[in-house]
Automatic annotation (TrEMBL):
Domain of life per record: Bacteria
Name used for this protein in its record: Sulfatase
Residue spans of biased composition, Basic and acidic residues class: 233-243
Keyword match Transmembrane helix: no
Source species of the chain: Streptomyces tabacisoli
InterPro entries: Alkaline_phosphatase_core_sf, Sulfatase_N, TAT_signal
Pfam families: Sulfatase
Highest classification ranks of the organism: Bacteria, Bacillati, Actinomycetota, Actinomycetes, Kitasatosporales
Signal recorded as keyword: yes
Length: 466
């Protein structure tokens, strides 16, 4: 295991007493350091962590109030990623700050492989935080099983209407739209701050915008902006792609349908986020609450003929990612261009709370000046059937190199196979941002050397075992 993320450079160590404005510095601005002290004994920040489901990056039209608050009065990360574009592995990375190959949740059936001792909620609860979970937890988690280290919870069995919840140990059906139920349960948790002076951690995770993408009644007929696709939709010539992409059949019409459905469900999420903002303002806690918002993975809108996630293409692993913490000097509406990921959330929160973890992290605190030069993204095939293979990818701002392997997992996440590389892709993301031309298709050894493929392959191999 590694105590750091994939290779990069460090422009300065984490300093809990001096945050500066790492986001602005990363964006190229030069601002004076702010003498905020996140670990002040009397003013540890509250933590509001919002994780949406299957929300791709290009969805800000549906969440204007969220963007106005968290990006307009916080930080927008323009290069936000997830390290495994699949729900349970990604959420486990959020909780643990670790890659899936280290935390062990390699597929949606392996949720119980997560070592609960390594989780963000364990650290916060043991440090005296009041902890709450509202919404989806981990795929394959039995709704009757209480989520560890949360003292107040309404755990949702994924659904949109009249959902089954485990409310503090009692499984029950709660009528209504589940995003609204999640919102109201969260607001009740926040309201308890009037009589409970402990700092709090709320993990809020509505089912939107996951399929079947059922909108709240008031948004069912909402018109969404017209969309003519992008060059990768549906990409008619896919001869340079692996077989599962060459055989994909999704069309622009399919992409438009999925996009519209996702946008409508996210309208209710936007309402909930606005309600959280207003409640924090009423409680006088808006300034010293660290708010982080991220999608657990992205989603293809018929890109390369695909709808869904789990693929090494940008719409699947790039996600909306915002952070706001005025009391920590991060409330000014800045843009941060660093490569950041879900593995950075746990280190960031613990840094802000002044907690030193006793288990290693692969991510780094976003409050530091750390800037990685690339990121490992990985995904495993479950079972032995035909179709897409296990893959891993080296992703930087200007290029992406991917290898597909003869490997698969069983339901518990155990990996078997030869590990032989069966297909490779390389994209120049500056010249080809939509990943239309795989430079390794029919490339000669000389071509590969000119592209730097031997070095990328070696770096990827190192990342996969770090």
């Amino acid at each position: 295991m590694s105590t750091s993320s994939t290779s990069g450079s460090t422009s300065g160590p984490t300093r809990r007493g001096i945050l500066g404005t790492a986001a602005a510095v990363a964006a190229g601005a030069t601002l004076p350091a702010l003498a905020a002290s996140p670990a002040r004994a009397a003013a540890r920040p509250n933590i509001l962590l919002i994780v949406t489901d299957d929300q791709p990056k290009q969805t800000e039209w549906a969440t204007p109030k969220t963007v106005s608050w968290l990006a307009g009065q916080g930080v927008r990360f323009t290069n936000g990623h997830v390290t495994t574009p699949l729900c349970a592995p990604s959420r486990s990375s959020v909780f643990s700050g670790r890659f899936a190959h280290n935390h062990g949740v390699r597929n949606n059936g392996a949720s119980h492989a997560l070592d609960q001792h390594t989780t963000l909620q364990r650290y916060l609860k043991e440090a005296g935080y009041r902890t709450g979970l509202f919404g989806k937890y981990l795929n394959s988690w039995n709704v009757a099983d209480n989520p560890p280290h949360f003292e107040d919870f309404a755990l949702l069995r994924p659904s949109y209407v009249d959902g089954t919840f485990n409310v503090n140990g009692t499984v029950q059906t709660i009528d209504g739209y589940t995003t609204t139920v999640v919102r109201n349960r969260t607001l009740a948790f926040l309201e308890k701050a009037r009589t409970d002076d402990r700092p709090w951690f709320a993990y809020v995770t509505p089912y939107a915008s996951h399929g079947p993408r059922t909108p709240e009644a008031k948004y069912a007929g909402t018109d969404v902006p017209a969309w003519d696709g992008r060059p990768s939709v549906p990409e008619d010539d896919r001869s340079d792609k692996p077989p599962y992409v060459r055989n994909a059949t999704q069309t622009l019409a399919d992409g438009r349908r999925v996009r519209a459905e996702q946008l409508r469900t996210l309208r209710s999420v936007d309402d909930a986020v606005q309600a959280f903002h207003d409640k924090l303002a009423a409680l006088g806690q808006l300034d010293n609450t660290l708010v982080i918002y991220i999608g657990d993975n992205g989603f293809n809108w018929a890109d390369h003929g695909l709808t869904g996630k789990g693929v090494p293409y940008r719409p699947a692993h790039e996600v909306p990612f915002y952070l706001s913490w005025p009391g920590g000097g991060l409330g000014g509406g800045t843009t941060d261009n660093r490569i950041v990921a879900n593995i950075d959330i746990a280190p960031t929160v613990l840094d802000a709370a002044g907690i030193s973890p006793d288990t290693p992290h692969d991510g780094r605190s976003l409050l530091s000046g750390y800037s990685r030069d690339h990121l490992l993204i990985e995904w495993w095939k479950q079972g032995t059937g035909a179709g897409q293979k296990t893959w891993s990818s080296y992703v930087s701002k200007d290029r992406q190199y991917t290898e597909y392997y003869d490997l698969h997992t069983d339901a518990s996440g155990t990996v078997t196979g030869t590990g032989q590389v069966g297909f490779r892709e390389y994209y120049d993301l500056q010249a080809d941002p939509y990943q239309l031309s795989n430079s390794l298709y029919q490339a000669t050894p000389a071509d590969e050397r000119a592209l730097g493929i031997p070095g990328l392959a070696a770096a990827l191999a190192a990342d996969r075992t770090a």
